[in-house]
Amino acid sequence: MFWNDLTYLNRGSDRQRDAFRVLIELDLMSVLADFEPVLAGTFPLGLETPESDLDILCNAEDLEHFATLVTAVYGDQDGFDLRHTEKNGLPTVICNFHYQNIPIEIFAQPRPSEEQNAYLHMVAEARLLREGGEEAVHAIRDLKLGGMKTEPAFGEYFRLSDDPYETLLTLADVSAEELSDVVIQAKFGRRDRPMKLSSIIEA
């Protein structure tokens, strides 16, 4: 899938079309153009829920410049918040605000956007969904509607061992055969131990 061609959103669900309108009205990709902006998360995967936010990843070598820009352009938006932190061993700036009925998160690190963990998670998740088909899409969306975060929902459905956040990183570039083995083993795993939604929702 060509993640950078966001017109697919305008051909999707009502929520995806709303997201596309928000991106256009806020001119987000143009404002952030110097920072390699990439839309990640549930909207590109078609797994969005009413609570899903627009996750935009950015590559910012100069985080202070990035922070100054987003504050100047979006600082008057509802719920605007900007914080400096550290994620995955890198200095990070996270900006959150709401526009109409869509929460937005802009995540910036001094790392190419397509090498950041959230992007690699999305690549792995897209591959798993292609292998798993519509059944996987519906099941994972149901898990998310029940309260699970995206990565744990994939971990539950596809029976990913250990930490799903770490396991998904390894699945972003494994061979098609290896990925198919994961999906097949998960199918047998669900047969032996069906999912019980009430027992796996995170607090």
How would you describe what is shown here?
This protein has 203 residues and is α+β, with helices and mostly antiparallel strands. The chain has two domains: 6-113, Beta Polymerase, domain 2; 119-200, no CATH class. The protein is 49% helix and 18% strand. It has nine helices and five strands, in the order ααβαβαβββααααα. It has helices at 14-26, 28-31, 42-45, 63-74, 117-145, 150-157, 164-171, 176-192, 197-200; strands at 38-40, 54-59, 78-87, 90-99, 102-109. It has a five-stranded mixed beta sheet with strand order 1-2-5-4-3, sandwiched between helices. Strand 3 and strand 4 form a beta hairpin. Helix 5 packs across helix 6 (150-157) and helix 5 packs across helix 7 (164-171). The two termini are 34 Å apart. The model is unreliable at 196-203 (pLDDT under 50).
How are the elements arranged and paired?
Elements: H1 14-26, H2 28-31, E1 38-40, H3 42-45, E2 54-59, H4 63-74, E3 78-87, E4 90-99, E5 102-109, H5 117-145, H6 150-157, H7 164-171, H8 176-192, H9 197-200
Parallel strand pairs: 2-5
Antiparallel strand pairs: 1-2, 3-4, 4-5
Helix pairs in contact: 5-6, 5-7, 6-7
